[in-house]
Amino acid sequence: MPDTGGTDPEDTLPPGFTRREARVNGTTLSYLIGGDGAPLVLLHGWPQTALAWRHVLAPLARLGFTVVAPDLRGLGRSARARSGYEKDTQADDLRRLLESLRLSRDVRLVGHDIGGMVAFSYARRFPGVVERLVLAELAVPGLGLEQAMDVAAGGRWHFGLFMAPEVPELLFSGHEHAFFTWWFAHLAGTPGAIGTADVAAVTRAYSGAESLRCGFEHYRTLLADGQVNRTWYEEGGRLTMPVLALGGELGAGTRLADALRPAVPGVIAGVVPRSGHFVAEEDPGSFLEILVPFLTGTVRPRTRSETVAR
Predict the structure, then answer these.
(1) Is 203 inside any structural domain?
(2) What is the 3-state secondary structure (H, E, C) of 227-287?
(3) Which of 62, 103, 112, 201 has the fewest beta carbons under 10 Å from its own?
(4) How many Å separate Cα 205 from the centre of its chain?
C-alpha cells in the first residue's frame, strides 16, 4: 500500500530521477526522467500529474528503460497553455519532447485516463515508432467514450459538466480540496489508497480558476477528438502493434478491451485485482505484475480476448 503520510510527493522521487522542462510545440512541458535504455513514456490522467507514477518509476527504470513522465499540457508544472488540448496536438507535444531527448524511436507508451487518450492518438499517428502500447482505465474518444458519457444510458455524469465552458471553474474554485478528496475516495477501490499528501499535492496543482480551466480543457476537446478517431477507424485505420488494455477490477475491468477490439484486433485485456480507477497507485505491485511482462515481451497479444491477471 502506498504511504499515506504527510510527505510531499515531489520530495519522494526515487534516486536517479530528476525534473526538467522543455519548450516544445509552442508550450513548456515539465517532465520527470530517469533510467537508461529504450524509452518508456508514462502519461497521467485527470486530476493528476506525473507524480501519479512515482511508485513505479524505479522498478520500471531497473528493467533497462529511460522512463519519461511528463506533466500533460497545462497541468502540474507545465505551462498554463491557452489552447492545444486536442489529443492529436498533445501527441505532437510528446513527439517533440522525445525528439529533443533523442528518444523518439522504439517507444513503449503507457497512458492512464486522459493520458491514455493522448497515448492512443500518438500510436494512431506515429505507429512506426511505438513498440508497445498500454491503455489504462479510460474509454477512447470515438471508440466507446461517447457511450460512457451518455448519462441517459447510465454513463458518467462528470463528462458533460467538465466540458461546459466556464461553469466548472465557477463551481470548484475555492472548493478544490474538498472536491478532490471526494473524487479520489469515490473512484479508488481501496479506502485511503490515495493519501492525504497525494490529495494535497493535486489540490496545489489544480487550484485557482486558471489551473482548473486548463484541466477542464482536456475534456472540452473530447467530441472533436472522437470525430478524428472515428474517421480514422471508418477509413480502415487499425492499430497493429502489441496493445494491452488495462482496467481495475472495481473500475473499467475489461470494458476498454472489448470496446477497442474492432480497431485493435490483437488487444489483450489486463485486470488489476481489487483496484479501482487509480491502478498504478492503489496497488503498484499488482499493476507491475501485469505491466512488466507485457512491456518486456513475455506476454504477446493474440487475436482472441485474453485476460492477464495475477
Answers:
(1) no
(2) HHHHHHHHCCCCCCCCEEEEEECCCCCCHHHHHHCCCCCCCEEEEECCCCCCHHHHCHHHH
(3) 62
(4) 16
Q: What pLDDT sits at residue 299?
A: 59
Q: Where are the alpha helices (DSSP H) in 150-208?
A: 158-163, 167-172, 176-187, 196-206
Residue 189, SS3 per DSSP:
coil
Measured at the alpha carbon of residue 249, what is the angle toward residues 251 and 259, in degrees to the nearest 5? 65
106 exposed, middle or buried (CB, 10 Å; 0-12, 13-18, 19+)?
Answer: exposed
CA distance linking residue 145 with residue 23, whole number of Å: 31
Q: Can you give the pLDDT at residue 197?
A: 93
Domain boundaries, position 112? 13-148+226-308
Whether residue 304 is contained in a domain is answered as yes
Residue 191: predicted pLDDT: 84
What DSSP state is assigned to residue 21? Answer: E
Q: Which residues are catalytic?
A: 113, 219, 277
Check the CA dihedral 61-110-302-277 and report its sign: positive
Any domain includes 174: no
* pTM as predicted: 0.94
Domain count, the chain: 1
The CATH number given to whatever domain includes residue 269 is: 3.40.50.1820
Distances (CA, A) of 69 to 32, 200, 209: 5, 20, 25
Q: What pLDDT, on a 0 to 100 scale, did the predictor assign at position 5?
A: 45
Residue 196 located in a structural domain: no
Predicted pLDDT at 6: 59
Determine contact, residues 121/87, Cβ cutoff 8 Å: yes
Q: What is the pLDDT of residue 301?
A: 38
Q: In this structure, is the dihedral angle defined by the CA atoms of residues 156, 284, 99 and 133, taken in order, positive or negative?
A: negative
